[in-house]
Specification:
The chain is an alpha+beta fold. The chain has four helices and eight strands. It is 50% helix and 19% strand.
Length: 185
């Protein structure tokens, strides 16, 4: 083979490939084919409906399972929190200044909750008006509880302001609040 022939063979080999002929897209050409396509659409819809039913049943089954697990695990949490409370409460009573007990898996905290105030708004409004304390009243003649609460002192289970008993408030002492904080497991 001569050099010119070799050159022609190499040029032909490196020519850009020709584009393949574009295939004609499938088309329906008669009523039988159209009817076949309708059956395919109906089958796809039916399969989807069946898949949706299966998925819905699985979702319900999984939700039921999860709710059962949640209930069981909430009971376990309550149980172990009760055990922790029974264990740490005597230690807190011996040393009331110690409010946090830290361990490698988390911490147990004991905090005194603020008392709950049961209010009689009508009596409280009268009291605030009698004591000329309009800054603690709203235009609707309702106590500004958030602000009033800041100046209330609780002495002997009685709510007072500047040493005077406040009508319309019953102080309800609340117990200790226990919280458990854990490290991620």
């Amino acid at each position: 083979m001569s050099m010119a022939e070799l050159e022609n063979v190499l040029l032909e080999a490196f020519e850009e490939p020709q584009q393949p002929e574009e295939r004609e897209r499938f088309r329906l050409t008669d009523e039988n084919m159209a009817n076949w396509a309708l059956r395919k659409v109906a089958k796809a819809r039916a399969e989807y409906e069946e898949a949706a039913k299966v998925a819905e049943a699985e979702i319900k089954r999984i939700d039921d399972w999860l709710n059962g697990r949640k209930r069981d695990l909430e009971h376990a949490e309550e149980f172990f929190t009760g055990l922790l409370t029974a264990y740490y409460l005597p230690q807190h009573m011996e040393d009331p200044q110690r409010k946090t007990f830290k361990l490698p898996a988390g911490a147990f905290q004991v905090r005194q909750q603020q008392p709950e105030y049961q209010r009689d708004d009508a009596a409280l409004v009268r009291w605030l008006e009698e004591h000329v304390m309009p800054d603690y009243l709203e235009l609707v003649k309702k106590p500004k509880w958030g602000e009033l609460k800041k100046i209330i002192e609780t002495k002997g289970g009685v709510a007072t302001v500047a040493g005077e008993v406040v009508d319309g408030i019953t102080v309800v002492p609340r117990g200790l609040k226990f919280t458990v904080a854990t490290e991620e497991v």
